Structure formats: structure tokens, C-alpha cells
Amino acid sequence: MLCGVNTGLPASRFPDDKGNWTGFDVDFCRAVAAAIFDDPKKAKFIPLDANERFKELQSRKVDILSRNSTWSMSRETSDDLYFPAVAYYDGEGSCFRRRETSIRRWRSMAARYACSRKPTTQLNLADYFRANNMKYQEMKFAKLNDVIKAYDSGQCDVLTADVSQLYALRLNLAKPGDHVILPDIISKEPLAPRGAGERDDDWMLIVKWTLYAMINAEELGITSRTSTRR
Length: 230
Known about the structure:
Layout: E1 2-5, E2 14-15, E3 21-22, H1 24-37, E4 44-47, H2 53-58, E5 64-65, H3 73-77, E6 88-90, E7 92-97, E8 113-116, H4 119-131, E9 137-140, H5 144-152, E10 158-162, H6 163-170, E11 179-181, E12 189-191, E13 194-195, H7 201-220
Parallel strand pairs: 1-4, 1-5, 8-9, 8-10
Antiparallel strand pairs: 2-3, 5-13, 6-12, 7-10, 7-11
């Protein structure tokens, strides 16, 4: 089973120096493989960036997409993508340098330069600043490494992304301790896996109930150590 994942985000999906993938999204792919083949090792991981993830899924180059992708109405109605269930809720946050003492809340960011990457992040920025009658300058980048370099070099005052990403991205900065992540969040991002075959109800059921089984197991305290096979 080919699983499309993101790269470079510790705790969610990340290959170590030996090429072994670990993390939340990776474990979900292994769980689906176990549900189908009774073998989690049947899951193979394909790194995909934000611009190619849905195209590769629609062309069936991957069987499932398990990465930070927001479930939205436009993606279901316009792109014909269907999401089985929400894996977890994220939200757009911001990171800035400690020396920027004037920045304490999102509303103190007027006329600042913001580094961004994802389309949903850019839409959230536009909506927030328009609603609060504030102006800002945005620098958009297609690649994650370019965003980090631009912010780290001082081209941007603020780095904005989903909060789960910001904590990982901060580790890649030259001096992580010199940067602060604001507590306030300006969006709600329901992140969900996506299986290929938009009209395949059986495949959707497998993906959905694998996720629900993992959520229920966590709530009940069931792990590989506490459960027994029957």
C-alpha cells in the first residue's frame, strides 16, 4: 500500500538517518495496512509536497494520503476529494523573534512581513487581516526550506503555519531559542487522511474505521502491551 506523506515534521511524519519512517501519520498508514493485509510492513511511504499531494492521489500514484491536509468544502465539491474522518484539529499560528517586543498578539502584526507557504495558510491570513482592517505584506514560497531560509535570514518578521508545524519548524532555525510562538490561533484546521478512489465506498469505510479504531483504542488505554489477539 502506497502512502503519501509529508517530510520534515517530527512527531507527525519523519524519516530517520536510516530511512525508517516514524510519527502519527506514518503509524496511521501502517494501521490501514494491518487492517487490509494483517501486516503493517506492507505500507510504503511516498514523500509529497503540498502542490503535488492531491494530483498524485487522484492519479492513483498513491493509495492513501496521510499528511497535514485540511478537510474543506471546496476540496470536496470542486476537487472531488472526500475525507473519511478528522484525525486531529490544528490551527494557524505564528512565530516571531523575541527581540520583536512589539509583537504580542496577532493584532499587533500590522504592516509586518509574513512568510507563508500553504494555500490555506495564505487564505487565513487574508481573511484575518481584512476582518481586522489591517495591512500586511506576504512573502509566498512553494517549498518549506525556502520559507525557513527567508524567515531565518530576516526577510520576514513573522513565520506563519499550522501550530503543529511551527514547533517542528522552529527546531530547524539557526537559534531556536530566539523565537517565540504566539498562543492565539486564527483558524481551525480539521486535518484528515484521504483514500484514493473517490467513489469507492468500501475503501472509505476501511480508512474511516481504522482511524476510529485507533481513537477508541487510545481512549480505552489499549496498546500492543495491553491487548491480546484472539
